[in-house]
Automatic annotation (TrEMBL):
Gene3D superfamilies: EF-hand (1.10.238.10). Keywords: Calcium, Membrane, Mitochondrion, Mitochondrion inner membrane, Repeat, Transit peptide. It comes from the Eukaryota. One of its GO terms (biological process) is mitochondrial calcium ion homeostasis. Residues 101-136 form the EF-hand domain. It is found in: Mitochondrion inner membrane; Mitochondrion intermembrane space. Its main location: mitochondrion. It comes from Pseudolycoriella hygida. This is Calcium uptake protein 3, mitochondrial. InterPro entries: EF-hand-dom_pair, EF_Hand_1_Ca_BS, EF_hand_dom, MICU1/2/3. The gene is MICU3. One of its GO terms (molecular function) is calcium ion binding. GO terms for cellular component: mitochondrial intermembrane space; uniplex complex.
């Protein structure tokens, strides 16, 4: 009988795609760059690479320093950032849902995030939804939830 570490974990197609296209790692977690995300949407296979880049605390701080404020966002942001940003799996799912939902579905989803009705999703509102998504993901896999 195999122990838990030897059991194969069933991954969804989106999880496999995220892992396949993720080119950076930080603190044991895989992340995509904005460029990786764009490629995951339009390409069949990721660009060739020898291995994932492991980011340091300093790298993360540099990414934060160059991230434009919300009011400076543009439709070209992902193209301009290229490899100067990171996207978690939860953020990847959120971005994919925006791309694949019709406008009416997006409005419903936005209103679920925008709990105070100010037509903006602030960090607190986003983190509540992120916690829900992570909880559902862990529950699906039988992973204990931490408080």
């Amino acid at each position: 009988m195999k122990d838990d570490t030897e059991k194969a974990v069933k991954l969804t197609a989106r999880e496999r795609r995220f892992i396949k296209f993720s080119s950076v790692e930080f603190d044991g977690q895989l992340y995509m760059t904005p460029q990786d995300f764009l490629e995951s949407v339009v390409e069949q296979e990721p660009r060739p690479r020898l291995k994932r880049k492991t980011l340091t605390e300093n790298d993360i701080q540099q990414i934060k320093d160059i991230t434009p404020p919300l009011k400076k966002g543009s439709s070209q942001m992902f193209r301009n950032l290229r490899d100067k940003g990171i996207i978690s799996y939860t953020e990847y799912l959120f971005l994919l849902s925006i791309l694949t939902k019709p406008k009416s579905g997006f409005k419903i989803a936005f209103n679920m995030f925008d709990t105070d009705g100010n037509q903006r999703v602030d960090k607190t509102e986003f983190l509540v939804m992120e916690k829900i998504f992570i909880g559902a993901w862990k529950d699906k896999r039988g992973i204990a939830l931490e408080d």
